[in-house]
UniProtKB/TrEMBL annotation:
Domain of life where this protein originates: Eukaryota
InterPro entries to which the protein is assigned, alphabetical: NA-bd_OB-fold (IPR012340), RFA1B/D_OB_1st (IPR003871)
Name assigned to this protein: Replication protein A 70 kDa DNA-binding subunit B/D first OB fold domain-containing protein
Cross-referenced SUPFAM superfamilies: Nucleic acid-binding proteins
CDD domains: RPA1_DBD_A_like
Ranges of residues in domain Replication protein A 70 kDa DNA-binding subunit B/D first OB fold: 19-105
UniProt organism field: Brassica campestris
Pfam families linked: DUF223
Length: 168
């Protein structure tokens, strides 16, 4: 499928976004919003089939529209490489907002969408999955280990080991 330009007021599918084109327009449903703390300041992040990162000062501008479970249209944004550990999806780019990014409620978004993108135990245990991409699983908790204090990248963190059993 070819990219549809904004000129005819159409939207581009996430899988067809062109990283060189900053004039595209997409519709997405915000599945999860969370706040991270970085040395450059706070950022708000949205995770779905594409990850978006919004700096704190820009998030304030869009707080009334960017809400979990809500569909929005987004235009005038930039795609940046999405690399490293703990990515929310395998897509190679993430969205970043400009001061000129426009976000509006989208009331005509498809009703059906996968709630989560579950991975089955077979794929996890076989090692086929990218270890840098977070996955969702459903299983029965068999054992919970003790809370451990560990250092990650020089910072203190808590770690909890949980053993799951496949319920299928």
């Amino acid at each position: 499928m070819s990219i549809i330009s904004k000129k005819n007021n159409s939207f581009v599918l996430v899988k067809n976004i062109d990283s060189a084109d900053e004039t595209q327009k997409i519709k997405v449903k915000v599945l999860v919003l969370w706040k991270t703390y970085k040395s450059s300041g706070n950022t708000h992040e949205m995770g779905t089939r594409i990850h978006a990162q919004v700096e704190e000062d820009l998030m304030k501008k869009h707080l009334t529209v960017l809400k979990e479970g809500e569909a929005v249209s987004i235009n005038t944004f930039q795609l940046k490489d999405y690399l490293g550990e703990f990515r929310t999806n395998p897509y190679p780019y993430k969205i970043t907002f400009f001061r000129t990014t426009k976000v509006k409620a989208a009331d005509d978004f498809l009703e059906y969408y996968p709630e989560k993108y579950f991975s089955d135990f077979e794929n996890i245990l076989s090692g086929k999955l990218d270890k840098n991409v977070l996955v969702d699983v459903i299983g029965q908790i068999v054992n919970i280990g003790p809370m451990e204090q560990i250092k990650t990248k020089g910072k203190d963190n808590s770690k909890l080991d949980i053993i799951l059993r496949d319920t299928m």
